[in-house]
Amino acid sequence: MMVQRLLFWLVLLQCPSSPNPNLVLSLPDPFCLGPHGIEVLWKLLILTAFLGTCAFLIYLWRTILAIKPRQYEVTLDQIKMKINNLKNENRDLEKNIASWEEKAREAKKQAETKREHKRSLAGVRKLKAQDALADQELRALTSKNQELKERKTFLEDQCNALSSKEAELNLLKKKLDMVVEFSENRKLTAEEKLEEKLYELNATKNELLAADKYLKVTEEEMEKYRQEVEEMREELQESNLTFNHKIAVQERNALANWMKARYWEARIMQQSRENAYLKYRLRMMQREMLPVGSVRRELMPGRPESQKPVWQGH
């Protein structure tokens, strides 16, 4: 009833913030109000409107906006049974998760071992092919080097033979000089034997001409052999340089292969450490999922810089 009256006054007064001049004019003529009386009346109207609004809001809150709490008809035994069922389901789920994680780890290990085996087989095949190619090149170079050595010895023998022939020619030259000197001396002293000596002299001259021709031929052959010897020396030097270069390349390849092997060994060790660390993390996660009383302390493998006591936080 109070709310209805307040609503009536609100509709009648329209808005309390704007003054209604008709209300003042409806008063009788002998009744005069001063400015203070009008102010008091407006304050009363504003207070009444505020109280009516509050009452209306309280009415709406208690009747329309009221929400009844839900009533659950569940007993304590049913709640315990549900909790036990949930615990059993959690245990089954944990067992299934652990089995699937173990299967995943085994599959990952098998795949990793197969991958490493394939990589090692490919590396061994490649190294064998490189070694076979290097052995073939080395055998070819050694055979060529042996052939060059044989040719060098043959040329040295020919040079020795030519040097012996040159010594003989020098000896013949000396003999010729001696004969010429002897003939000149004999020409002055024995003119009666001139014809015989001239014959001998002509014979010796013919021999000298033949010897000169032979000397020229031998000199040309010696020059030719010298050029061949120089060419063979240059070829031998070039072959030695190529042989040394290929040996250096093979040594660098062997060093590179050794460094690759060391690198892969380090990678394998690092991967094993990472696997141990991941296993430890998995055990820690499984312990966090278990109840507090079932946690058992163990040493942490791998990564000594990241080891902390179990009772400390991560």
Name a few traits of the molecule:
mainly alpha; single chain; 82% helix; 5 helices; 314 residues; disordered C terminus; 2 domains
Write the layout of secondary structure elements.
Blueprint: H1 2-13, H2 21-25, H3 35-63, H4 76-189, H5 194-289
Helix pairs in contact: 1-3, 4-5
Protein name: Transport and Golgi organization protein 1 homolog isoform X3
Organism: Mustela putorius furo (European domestic ferret)
Transmembrane segments: 41-61
Calculate the mean pLDDT score and round it.
Answer: 76
- Measure the end-to-end span: 67 Å
Cα Rg: 63 Å
What letter string, H or E per element, gives the SSE order?
HHHHH
How many individual domains?
2
The computed structural class is mainly alpha
Say how many strands there are.
Answer: 0
Number of helices: 5
What portion of the residues fall into strands of 2 or more residues? under 5%
The major sheet is characterized as: none
Overall geometry comes to rod-shaped
Unreliable residue stretches: 14-28, 292-314
- Percent helix, as a range, is over 70%
Architecture overview:
By secondary structure, the chain is mainly α. It folds into two domains: 2-63; 119-286. Helix content is 82%, strand content 0%. The chain is built from five helices and no strands. The protein has helices at residues 2-13, 21-25, 35-63, 76-189, 194-289. Mean pLDDT is 76; it is low at 14-28 and 292-314. Keywords: Coiled coil, Membrane, Signal, Transmembrane, Transmembrane helix. It comes from Mustela putorius furo. InterPro entries: cTAGE_MIA/OTOR.
